[in-house]
Write a structure and sequence with these properties.
hydrolase; disordered N terminus; two-stranded antiparallel ribbon; alpha/beta; P-loop containing nucleoside triphosphate hydrolase protein; 369 residues
Length: 369
């Protein structure tokens, strides 16, 4: 009982004014129907609300796709706001991942028997089934010993406790643990779902964003909605810091995200002989007579003077070349080898300017052959 009271006090202590909350928390889905773009998972979990018969679950997929939000929303719909703290234990396994946590905190919570009851709260009725839910976020960070100990607890207390393991890499979960769970794969959000959600948040916060800004948010976040929302909030703070407030631009988003501006990468690509499609500059690649060591070196020095990351620059240049619609596969393969070699060298701490120059010259040579 003291354990539950301690949880309630902690919950009260950490109540935050919504105006001061990060937007990723403020706009976290309240019900599973609010979860974006995970139709199959939502459809299956919606049935568990009617039957209240929940299996052990394993949610896996890339960051920012709604894994933790989904299980928290489901738990709130099952237990209601009054019983949520008593019935749900949420742990981040990347912080608390040792066997001692499994043996003490998890086992103590799992062994306590709850009562089945229909609960009416805030005008709604919640089924409040006769079991508790333990959410282990970042479960792929748990040690092998901790996962082994958890397997026995899942068996022993299955009647009164359900587990939900949340992870990015399902291969790091031991097979005996994974086989006891229903697996749900979360996919990166498509641009339509991301656009709709970002537009809803912008509207709720009374900020004006253009389609170009939303497109840049989606491109820089790579299907991670949490990251896109964080960038939007940062851009909003930046915009409102001036008097009068300035409009949010795509360049602001790129600056906040730490990516190299598109025009800079496109200019570098053109100097290497790559025809850049969809760019405002329609001059095409630099003339063959003007291309060479000195031209490439000049572009590289300009990039380094601006302080752009070598890894980020090469990553964006890689995407332009490898997804190019007209370059032959043989030339793309030669370029890919150059990028791979540079990635290894940069990870080992090699000089950034020299490796951007090296890749630039190898790409120039590959595209000229």
């Amino acid at each position: 009982m003291a354990f539950f009271q301690g949880q309630a006090k902690t919950a009260t202590k950490h109540m935050v004014d919504p105006a001061l909350q990060p937007w990723v928390e403020k706009y976290r889905p309240k019900t599973i129907d609010d979860v974006s773009a995970q139709e199959h998972t939502v459809a299956v979990l919606r049935k568990t609300l009617t039957s209240t018969n929940l299996p052990h679950m394993l949610f896996y997929g890339p960051p920012g796709t709604g894994k933790t939000s989904t299980i928290l929303a489901l738990s709130r719909q099952l237990f209601g706001p009054d019983n949520f703290r008593n019935r749900v234990l949420e742990l981040n396994a990347s912080d608390e991942r040792g066997i001692s946590i499994v043996r003490e905190k998890i086992k103590n919570f799992a062994r306590q028997t709850p009562r089945a009851q229909m609960v009416a709260s805030d005008g709604n009725t919640y089924p409040c089934p006769p079991y508790k839910i333990i959410i282990l976020d970042e479960a792929d960070s748990m040690t092998q010993d901790a996962q082994g100990a958890l397997r026995r607890i899942m068996e022993t207390y299955a009647r009164i406790t359900r587990f939900c393991l949340v992870c990015n890499y399902v291969t790091r979960i031991i097979e005996p643990l994974a086989s006891r769970c229903s697996k749900f794969r979360f996919t990166p959000l498509d641009s339509t779902s991301s656009t709709l959600r970002l537009s809803q948040i912008a509207s709720a916060e009374n900020i004006s964003v253009t389609p170009d800004v939303v497109s840049t948010l989606i491109d820089t976040s790579g299907g991670d909605l949490r990251r896109a929302i964080t960038y939007l909030q940062s851009a909003s703070r930046l915009s409102s810091s001036t008097n009068p407030p300035t409009p949010i631009t795509s360049k602001d988003i790129q600056e906040i995200a730490g990516v190299v501006p598109t025009d800079v990468v496109n200019d570098f690509a053109r100097a290497l002989g790559v025809e850049v499609f969809g760019d405002m500059d329609t001059d095409g690649p630099v003339d063959g007579k003007k291309r060479g060591f000195e031209t490439v070196q000049k572009k590289v020095k300009a990039i380094m003077r601006e302080g752009y990351s070598a890894s980020q620059t090469l990553s964006q240049l890689h995407d332009i070349i490898i997804t190019h619609p007209t370059l032959p596969a043989k030339q793309k393969a030669k370029c890919a080898l150059a990028f791979a070699e540079a990635d290894k060298a940069l990870c080992d701490g090699s000089d950034e300017e020299l490796w951007i120059l090296e890749v630039g010259l190898q790409v120039l040579r590959a595209l000229s052959s």
